[in-house]
Amino acid sequence: MHKAVTFINRRAKFSLTRSQRLLMSIFCSLSVGLTHAQPMGAPSLGPASADELSPAVERKLGEAIMVEARRDPDFVSDPAINQYLNDMAHHLVAFAPHGGPELDVFGVRDPVVNAFAMPGGFIGVNTGLIVSTKSEAELAGVLAHETAHVVQRHMARGLTQQKQSNAIMLASMAAAILAALAHAGGNAAAGVALFGQAAALDQQLGFSREAEQEADRIGFDMLSQAGYDPTGMVRMFAGMTNAATLNESVRGGVFASTHPLSMQRMTDMQNRARLMKPVPNQSSANYWYVRAKARVIQSRDVKTALLVTEQFQEEARVSDGSNRSAALFGLSLLAFQNKNYPAAEQYLKSAQVNVPASPFLSAQAIDIDLAQGNTNHALVTAQAAIKKWPEQVAILQRLVKVYEVSHKDHELVELLNQYIQRWPDQVPSLYQSLGNAQERMGLRIESRENIATYYRLTGALVAAMNQLQEARKMSNDFYEQSQLDARVQKIREQMTQERRMLERFKAG
After folding, report:
1. Residue 433 CB contacts under 8 Å (≥ 6 apart), including other chains
2. Are 230 and 95 in contact (CB under 8 A)?
3. How far apart are CA 375 and CA 170, in angstroms?
4. What pLDDT is attached to residue 200?
5. What does residue 99 show for φ and ψ, rounded to 5 degrees?
6. Domain boundaries, the chain
7. Per-residue pLDDT tens digits for 327-382
8. Of 186, 187, 221, 269, which has the maximum CB count within 10 A?
């Protein structure tokens, strides 16, 4: 096991980002403590085939990792950014050959230019990658390439190759997840460490030349069929590769070094682009707002924030349309971050001039109103926004917050039930908000049932069982108790199934 840790550290030293190096070190320290749970020697994974890691098992691995990954401070929980990335990925994968797998894309607060795939269709996109793009087609080009790796199951193939290092890596992940399950599923350190380990898989495995070419071809086809300018992929990859070759700058980042673009690959993409019908290189307003948000999110210190402020001010001066509006929006976000609400409001008003209404701008207006105590105006804005953009999670969450601040629990419960019917599993936080509202209303059993659903959907199965068991103790109704018992038993069966799926990766 110590040899495996040394190997992982040596491979990761020059390729991992700052946050990933930190998480990897946590994983390595944790691994020493899990020695008794680890296999002694390389596990037997069978033939070098993706079939050895079935889509169901691969998805379960990814879900287990993501349970605690969402608690990591670098995980971007901003619903607007993540919904934008997921909408883009789902639009791209709709044009994948033979259909695409279930995808879940999330942002990572890190200035390094990188994107990485984890087991089960989970894809991380660094804020640095978003910020480094100059157009929506460039961002879509990188995401299309990474999505193609997922579509072709290159991760599963890499993990199940007959290589001792990959076998140990997979066994380590499985054993750590099993250890967390054995200790009531509440080992946050284990989960965060697994996130770092998984984020490094894309870089440590190193896809073959054939896999990279396959991802280029399929990603390029998805990109063009989805309506994006196909030359965006060519521009982005060429820019990253040149930057990495010249000075290993932040713009070159990890992605360029782990997806090396050979002359043959570059020429092939250029030739494909020439054969395609030209597509206007236009970027949506949402792209510019997401890019501005990413720049603010990764501004960790005063020096960086001042630099970004100057950049936004210059862009607002020389740009027009959505680009100018996004720069002013960014200035509003920075002012809000510094609790300078009057300045934030003024920048926002300027951002709204001569551009179409946007959920990003409306969400910022609601935040400013709430921060300044203008609850009634926030309510009016939020109700109008949810009517205009009913599918925007960021707007819904702000309306929920306004109802909570206004003590409108009955209206809130009605709203949440409507959206839970629409999105039964997609937005777990709705159940948490519903449970909290019911608790305030004195509906203690219903509250715990909905909080249990929230925990179940986020993978905290033991916490979900505890909530249901509490609800059972509060009930005097035999039928209701039986239903709660059945739900507890279903969760126990799910945990048993997960353990069995993971146990297969341990040496016999």
Report:
1. 400, 404, 412, 416
2. no
3. 51
4. 52
5. 85, 165
6. 2-275, 314-502
7. 999 999 999 999 999 999 999 999 999 999 999 999 999 999 999 999 999 999 99
8. 269
